Amino acid sequence: MRTMWKGSIQFGLVYIPIKLYTATEDKDIKLRMLHKDCMAPINYTRTCSKCGKEVSYENIVKGYEYSPEQFVAVSEEELSHLQEDSDKSIEIINFVNLSEIDPIFYEKSYYIGPDGGNGLKAYSLLRQAIGDSAKIGIANIIIRSKQHLAAIRSHGNGMILETLYYPDEVRSIEEVPEIGNVAGENVQKELDMATQLIDQLATEFQPENYKDEYRLKLENLIQNKIAGIKPEQKKGVPQPKNVVDLLSALEASVKETRPKKRTARRKKTV
Fold first, then answer.
1. All domains of the chain, ordered by start, with CATH?
2. Is the pLDDT of residue 228 over 50?
3. How far apart are CA 53 and CA 45, in angstroms?
4. Which of 132, 151, 184, 257 matches a 20 to 30 Å C-alpha distance to 266?
C-alpha cells in the first residue's frame, strides 16, 4: 500500500509521526474516447481560448475569475505561504460523539499508519484512548493544497481519518424544489404498512452482500466482445406504473417481502 501523505498528529503536546494510506479504491471501468473510423484514442491539446495557440505546461499559471473574463493570477509561492508548516501536521481540536456527525459531511477515508520508531507507543496509546472513549477526534489537515476538516477514529488495530465537508460546503435541504410541499400528516394505516415493510426488509449491514451489478455486467460485456461473442438482444424494460392507490401498493409490497413459511415435514410412522 503506497503512502500518500506523511506528517504527524498533534495530541495536546504529544506529536505522533504517521502516514496516510487511501482506504478505498475506484473500481469503475474507464472507457476511452475513440475515433470511430480508426478505433484509436482521441488526443486533447491545451489551447488558449483567446489566441488559439497550444500552451505548454511551463506557460500555464493559476488564476481566479473575479468577474466575467477578468482574472487575477495566484502563484504557487503565494499559495505555499498561506499553508506555512500546517500541511504536515494534524492538530486534534476537539473530541465528539460519532452519532453527532451526519453522514452527509463525510467525503473520503484514509487509513492512518504509524511512521515507526518511537512513535509506535504514542500511536497505540492514542488509538486505544479514542476507542475506549467511544469518541472521535476533529482536526484540520491539508491534502494536495486543500484544507479539510477531518474526523479521526479508532478502527481495529489502527485508526482511520475521514475528511469532512465544511458546513458552508453542504447545501441546505430547503433548496430542494417542492420540499416545502411535502405533506406533514400521513394516514395512520398507510404509515403502519410502511413501517411493517421497513421491518420486513431490516437486516444487519453486511458489506459483502452488496455488489456493483452494473460493473459486473459491463466486465462481462467487454470480455464477450473481446472473445467475439455478440451480446444478447434483450426486451425493453417495463416502465413502472404510476401509484394511484398508495395503501394498495404498500399492502402488495408487504405481501411480496413477507418471509415464506416453511412447511413442516411429517414424521413417518413405522
1. 5-24+82-169 (2.40.290.10)
2. yes
3. 10
4. 257
